Protein backbone atom coordinates (compact mmCIF):
# COMPACT_ATOMS: atom_id res chain seq x y z
CA UNK A 1 0.00 0.00 0.00
CA UNK A 2 1.33 3.41 -0.90
CA UNK A 3 1.16 6.52 1.26
CA UNK A 4 0.92 8.86 -1.70
CA UNK A 5 -2.32 10.63 -2.41
CA UNK A 6 -4.51 8.83 -4.90
CA UNK A 7 -6.30 10.75 -7.63
CA UNK A 8 -9.52 9.25 -8.94
CA UNK A 9 -12.19 11.02 -10.98
CA UNK A 10 -10.91 14.52 -10.16
CA UNK A 11 -10.94 14.03 -6.37
CA UNK A 12 -7.81 13.64 -4.27
CA UNK A 13 -8.05 10.93 -1.64
CA UNK A 14 -5.66 10.88 1.30
CA UNK A 15 -4.42 7.68 2.83
CA UNK A 16 -4.99 6.91 6.50
CA UNK A 17 -1.37 7.77 7.35
CA UNK A 18 -1.72 11.18 5.70
CA UNK A 19 -4.98 11.83 7.55
CA UNK A 20 -3.36 10.86 10.86
CA UNK A 21 -0.33 13.06 10.16
CA UNK A 22 -2.54 16.04 9.27
CA UNK A 23 -4.65 15.53 12.40
CA UNK A 24 -1.55 15.31 14.60
CA UNK A 25 -0.08 18.46 13.00
CA UNK A 26 -3.30 20.43 13.57
CA UNK A 27 -3.51 19.24 17.17
CA UNK A 28 0.12 20.23 17.75
CA UNK A 29 -0.45 23.70 16.29
CA UNK A 30 -3.67 24.24 18.26
CA UNK A 31 -1.93 23.14 21.46
CA UNK A 32 0.57 25.95 20.99
CA UNK A 33 -2.23 28.45 20.39
CA UNK A 34 -4.06 27.34 23.52
CA UNK A 35 -0.88 27.54 25.60
CA UNK A 36 -0.24 31.08 24.31
CA UNK A 37 -3.72 32.31 25.24
CA UNK A 38 -3.74 34.98 27.96
CA UNK A 39 -4.89 33.91 31.38
CA UNK A 40 -6.37 37.25 32.49
CA UNK A 41 -10.08 37.77 31.95
CA UNK A 42 -9.75 41.17 30.29
CA UNK A 43 -8.45 40.05 26.88
CA UNK A 44 -11.99 40.01 25.43
CA UNK A 45 -13.03 43.35 26.89
CA UNK A 46 -12.33 45.29 23.70
CA UNK A 47 -14.48 42.96 21.59
CA UNK A 48 -17.18 42.93 24.27
CA UNK A 49 -17.27 46.73 24.41
CA UNK A 50 -17.48 46.94 20.61
CA UNK A 51 -20.39 44.47 20.40
CA UNK A 52 -22.26 46.23 23.21
CA UNK A 53 -21.71 49.54 21.40
CA UNK A 54 -23.20 48.11 18.21
CA UNK A 55 -26.19 46.54 19.96
CA UNK A 56 -27.06 49.53 22.12
CA UNK A 57 -26.07 52.17 19.55
CA UNK A 58 -27.61 53.16 16.24
CA UNK A 59 -27.31 49.73 14.50
CA UNK A 60 -29.07 47.95 17.36
CA UNK A 61 -31.83 50.56 17.51
CA UNK A 62 -32.39 50.35 13.75
CA UNK A 63 -32.58 46.54 13.81
CA UNK A 64 -34.88 46.66 16.84
CA UNK A 65 -37.24 49.09 15.08
CA UNK A 66 -37.30 46.93 11.95
CA UNK A 67 -38.09 43.80 13.97
CA UNK A 68 -40.92 45.65 15.77
CA UNK A 69 -42.21 46.57 12.31
CA UNK A 70 -41.96 42.96 11.15
CA UNK A 71 -43.82 41.84 14.29
CA UNK A 72 -46.60 44.34 13.60
CA UNK A 73 -46.81 43.31 9.93
CA UNK A 74 -46.87 39.60 10.75
CA UNK A 75 -49.49 40.07 13.47
CA UNK A 76 -51.82 42.47 11.67
CA UNK A 77 -51.50 41.85 7.94
CA UNK A 78 -50.61 38.17 7.74
CA UNK A 79 -52.21 36.93 10.98
CA UNK A 80 -49.11 34.83 11.65
CA UNK A 81 -48.73 35.10 15.40
CA UNK A 82 -45.78 32.71 15.68
CA UNK A 83 -43.62 34.86 13.39
CA UNK A 84 -44.91 38.00 15.10
CA UNK A 85 -43.93 36.57 18.48
CA UNK A 86 -40.49 35.58 17.20
CA UNK A 87 -39.86 39.04 15.77
CA UNK A 88 -41.05 40.63 19.02
CA UNK A 89 -38.71 38.43 21.08
CA UNK A 90 -35.77 39.36 18.80
CA UNK A 91 -36.63 43.04 19.19
CA UNK A 92 -36.74 42.67 22.99
CA UNK A 93 -33.36 40.89 22.93
CA UNK A 94 -31.87 43.85 21.06
CA UNK A 95 -33.47 46.26 23.51
CA UNK A 96 -31.93 44.38 26.45
CA UNK A 97 -28.77 43.21 24.68
CA UNK A 98 -26.26 44.41 27.25
CA UNK A 99 -28.02 42.72 30.16
CA UNK A 100 -28.52 39.49 28.18
CA UNK A 101 -24.87 39.31 27.10
CA UNK A 102 -23.61 40.03 30.62
CA UNK A 103 -25.93 37.35 32.01
CA UNK A 104 -24.58 34.71 29.62
CA UNK A 105 -20.96 35.75 30.21
CA UNK A 106 -21.25 35.59 33.98
CA UNK A 107 -23.38 32.44 34.15
CA UNK A 108 -21.84 29.46 35.87
CA UNK A 109 -22.63 26.05 37.20
CA UNK A 110 -23.53 25.75 40.86
CA UNK A 111 -21.08 23.60 42.75
CA UNK A 112 -22.57 21.34 45.41
CA UNK A 113 -20.18 21.13 48.33
CA UNK A 114 -19.79 17.88 50.16
CA UNK A 115 -20.29 15.64 47.17
CA UNK A 116 -17.46 13.25 46.38
CA UNK A 117 -15.85 13.85 43.04
Description:
With 117 residues, the protein is mostly helical. It has 5 helices and 2 strands, in the order E-E-H-H-H-H-H. The protein has helices at 16-35, 45-56, 58-76, 81-95, 97-106; strands at residues 6-8, 11-13. Strands 1-2 form a two-stranded antiparallel sheet. A hairpin with a 2-residue loop joins strand 1 and strand 2. Helix 3 runs antiparallel to helix 4. It starts with 5 loop residues before the first strand and ends in an 11-residue tail after the last helix. The relative contact order is 0.07.
Concise account of the structure shown:
The chain has 117 residues and is mainly α. The chain contains 5 helices and 2 strands.
The radius of gyration computed from the alpha-carbon positions, rounded to a whole number of angstroms, is 25 Å
Compute the separation of the termini in Å: 48 Å
Instruction: Determine the strand fraction and express it as a percent band.
Output: 5-15%
**SSE order, one letter for each helix or strand:** EEHHHHH
The structural class is mainly alpha
Q: Into which percent range does the helicity of residues fall?
A: 55-70%
Helical region count? 5
Q: Describe the largest sheet.
A: 2 strands, antiparallel
Q: Please give the order of strands in the largest beta sheet.
A: 1-2
Strand tally is 2
Amino acid sequence: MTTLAKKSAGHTQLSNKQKQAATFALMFISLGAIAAAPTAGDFLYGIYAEVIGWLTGAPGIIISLFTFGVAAFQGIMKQNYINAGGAFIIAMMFANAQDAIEYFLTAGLPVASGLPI
